[in-house]
Specification:
The complex is a heterodimer of chains A (573) and B (175).
Chain A lengths: L2 E4 L2 E4 L6 H7 L23 E4 L3 E4 L10 E3 L3 H16 L15 H8 L23 E3 L9 H9 L5 E4 L6 E4 L15 H5 L5 E3 L3 H9 L4 E6 L20 H11 L3 E4 H22 L5 E2 L4 H10 L13 H17 L6 E7 L3 H6 L5 E2 L2 E2 L3 E4 H10 L21 H4 L6 H15 L17 E8 L2 E9 L1 H12 L7 E5 L18 H17 L9 H11 L5 H7 L11
Helix pairs in contact in A: 8-10, 8-14
Chain B lengths: L3 H4 L11 H12 L6 H12 L4 H11 L3 H10 L11 E6 L2 H5 L2 H12 L13 E6 L11 E3 L2 E3 L4 H18 L1
Parallel strand pairs in B: 1-2
Antiparallel strand pairs in B: 1-3, 3-4
Classes of the chains: A alpha/beta (573), B alpha+beta (175).
């Protein structure tokens, strides 16, 4: 083990690959605008400048550490150059902070403040470029772009799509879609990770807060809310609660205070998803048809498959996502029970996910011409509404969820983390295949945060090969390996976002930090443990629903209400 | 040095040729490695005299690159054009040497002679594209103009207009 000096202190090297990593591990916070540990190194923003004896000023992010280096991070020269770099970035940046969606949550704003930029000496000369407001989820404002390229690498490297790239040259350079077409026309799957990683307000998620207030204030509408599993362990971060701390009770209280009639848990629908999907899975395994089965809960993944791998659409589970299952149940079934016509019910989903905004608008998810889910707002949007309403979130009393769609098991809760859907399905598949009770419900083989994990689980002497994927570039790898005949799976779970839904782009912006994601995941597993039931098939409210209305898993009513079909969206050329 | 006639690319019917077949032929020559992108684009640029959208999409698909990446490369290099270019591409050098020896009056004379609209670089009849370049590396001949890579040195407004007159005459007699 070698060592080097950071600001006069001796630091032991621990396998770090860059000076930036060494210095940060030594507890010194170096600013970066174009660097993220999950992406390749770019070295363009010049924020991470350090002074190394014998080398002078270098960018720490792409300098490998060497034994005996003497590094200083806070010299007069470093400070001067960093401030100058910031000033130059700001000279091209539309600094309309007060009206910016990212105000208070913006790296550039924070650094300008932290490094004492109180004046930008350079006059802005560029013409204003048009804002691309076409997207269902992502809005592009090139006037705020600082060309750090984080979105380019996020979309290309982690999601394997590459909707955005640099175009033109020199002072004309912009981050652009192909042919600068509207984002709606591109292969964007609405995962929103580009906006989550954007250090400024150049890429933001369409806000539908006003629509939510309008519905709540509309006296002719009964507003019904569903809350996705991953929201409960993240929303607290917006109110200084630690990541991973589950605050579902407070969430229900807050929504009630705001004027919502009913609050349900998407995890309830996740339990139904497990039951329908497991039935489908066992049938496919036994018949040998359409194996592997791909999960279909992630709308970004579904759109990805429709666009790039339509030949595998028969392999997708025909199950709707939990969001759409619950929407459908509420509009088709619960409305009758309440005696309120479906068109007077207004369903709002609170999602960690931005692609859900797109999913809810799909033509196939409607009842009597009206959408099953009327509006999707993200964790971030809800947090803002709670702040707007002047609610002191952490001090709220806990309120239980409404029934019947508020009764959940741990299996439905872990849907929010990568590996969770597989684990929930295994918990049921085991009992169906062995006709025995599953005692230990933890399948640790499918847990973890690696982007692509595979394992083999033997149930009743039958080996089941699984792949658990997060990040669509990893899904691409699985599909290509399948096509080449290199791998043979039975079940493939795909979630587009890092770590699964807990890392969704609708979550508090800290979701780009993997340690925060791990805490949220741990929070969901804690909730699973704490609940009395861990298997979807144990959920009495789900059982009652089948008995009273759906019939049995895979029945005609179940298919009409809970399943869907997919469309090839491959571009013709 | 190539003559003007040799360097003029085939004109008629290009856009009716199947784009995918054209791209496939180029991909066959250069392979599907990422590094084949620029040679393929160069060949397409030569064939079409610009890079139509369909071509860029087709190249992206053939090389398994995203269309945004191909668009990025195509817009980075000045050698590629996403707008249709004229049959004759006239480059007026406006490097330091050419500039001080009067390249601007030469440029203006060309624009006036071929009837180029303000703010455009290609004439309406798609016969001429006029560009300024920073230095052609022939400072001893300043001011320099190239027409489809044929070099004309020590240009004056009168001289370039005479050359263009000859070109026009050829064009009309061919037609």
């Amino acid at each position: 083990m070698g060592w080097l000096m950071v600001n006069g202190k001796s630091v032991t090297l621990n396998g770090e690959t860059s000076v930036l990593e060494v210095v940060r591990n030594a507890g010194v916070d170096i600013p970066t605008l174009c660097h993220h540990p999950d992406l390749s190194v770019y070295g363009a923003c010049r924020m991470c400048l350090v002074d190394i004896d014998g080398r002078g000023i270098v960018a720490a992010c792409h300098t490998p550490p060497e034994e005996g280096m003497v590094i200083r991070t806070n010299t007069a020269m470093v400070r001067r150059l960093r401030k100058m770099a910031l000033e130059l970035i700001l000279a091209r940046h539309d600094g309309e902070c007060t009206t910016c969606d990212r105000s208070g949550n913006c790296k550039l704003q924070e650094y300008a403040h932290r490094f004492g930029v109180d004046d930008v000496r350079f006059e802005r000369t560029e013409e204003r470029l048009p804002i691309d407001n076409s997207g269902v989820t992502v809005i592009r404002d090139p006037n705020k772009c600082i060309l750090c390229g984080e979105c380019v690498r996020m979309c290309g490297e982690l999601q394997g799509i590459g909707v955005l790239d640099f175009a033109h040259r020199g002072s004309d350079m912009v981050v652009s879609t192909a042919f600068n077409q509207d984002i709606r026309e591109t292969d964007c799957v609405n995962c929103g990770q580009c906006a989550a990683i954007c250090p400024t307000g150049a890429l933001t998620i369409r806000s539908q807060i006003q629509e939510a207030w309008d519905a709540i204030n509309d006296s002719t509408k009964t507003v019904v809310v569903q809350i996705a599993p991953a929201v409960r362990v993240a929303i607290g971060e917006e109110f200084n609660l630690p990541p991973g701390q589950s605050s579902m009770g407070q969430l229900v209280t807050a929504l009630r205070t705001m004027g919502v009639s009913k609050v349900f848990d998407t995890s309830f629908a996740a339990d139904i998803t497990v039951i329908e999907e497991t039935k489908e899975f066992i049938e496919r395994v036994q018949s040998g048809q359409n194996i592997p089965q791909f999960t279909s809960c992630c709308p970004a993944w579904v759109k990805y498959a429709e666009q790039f791998y339509p030949e595998y659409l028969d392999n997708l589970s025909s199950c709707r996502s939990p969001q759409q299952m619950l929407g459908s149940l509420v509009k088709k079934h619960y409305s009758k029970e309440l005696g309120i016509p479906a068109q007077d019910l207004f369903m709002i989903s609170i999602m960690p996910c931005t692609a859900k905004k797109f999913e809810a608008q799909r033509d196939e998810f409607t009842t009597d011409g009206a959408p099953d889910v009327d509006l999707v707002i993200t964790t971030q949007e809800l947090a803002r509404m709670i702040k707007e309403a002047g609610i002191d979130y952490p001090s709220l009393e806990e309120t239980p969820l409404d029934q019947p769609f508020g009764f959940v098991t741990g299996a439905g809760i872990i849907f929010g983390v990568t590996g969770g859907v597989s684990e929930a399905v295994l918990r049921q598949a085991y009992e169906i295949l062995t006709e025995q009770e599953l005692k230990d419900v933890v399948f640790s083989d499918v847990r973890g945060y690696e982007g692509l994990r595979s394992c083999e689980i033997v149930i009743n002497e039958m080996p089941i090969r699984l792949a658990v994927v997060n990040g669509l570039a990893n899904a691409k790898k699985v599909l290509e390996d399948m096509r080449a005949g290199k791998v043979h799976y039975h079940l493939v779970e795909v979630m587009a976002c890092p770590g699964g839904c807990i890392g969704g782009a609708g979550q508090p912006i800290t979701n780009v930090n993997r340690h925060v994601r791990y805490e949220r995941g741990a929070g969901l597993y804690r909730d699973d443990k704490r609940l009395p039931m861990h298997k979807s098939q144990q959920n009495p409210a789900v059982a009652a629903l089948y008995e009273n209305w759906l019939g049995y898993p895979g029945s005609k009513t179940a298919h009409e209400t809970l399943h869907t079909t997919y469309t090839c969206r491959k571009k013709s050329n | 040095m190539t003559t003007l006639e040799q360097s003029v690319v085939r004109d008629e019917g290009l856009n009716t040729i199947n784009v995918d077949d054209n791209v496939a032929a180029a991909v066959k020559r250069y392979g599907t490695n990422q590094s084949a992108l620029i040679p393929i684009l160069q060949e397409m640029q030569e064939q079409y005299r610009y890079l139509p959208k369909d071509v860029l999409n087709s190249v992206a698909e053939a090389l398994q690159l995203s269309p945004a990446t191909v668009y990025g490369v195509a817009t980075f290099y000045a050698q590629f054009s996403l707008e249709p270019k004229g049959k004759y591409v006239i480059k007026v050098c406006d490097g330091t040497a050419c500039h001080v020896r009067g390249s601007l009056p030469v440029y203006e004379a060309i624009c006036e002679r071929v009837g180029l609209e303000k703010g455009k670089s290609t004439t309406k009849n798609r016969r001429y594209t006029i560009e300024t370049v920073s230095c052609l590396g022939a400072c001893g001949l300043a001011p320099v103009v190239t027409i489809n890579d044929k070099v004309y040195g020590q240009m004056t407004p009168q001289a370039i207009v005479m050359i263009l007159d000859m070109l026009e005459e050829e064009e009309t007699s061919h037609a």
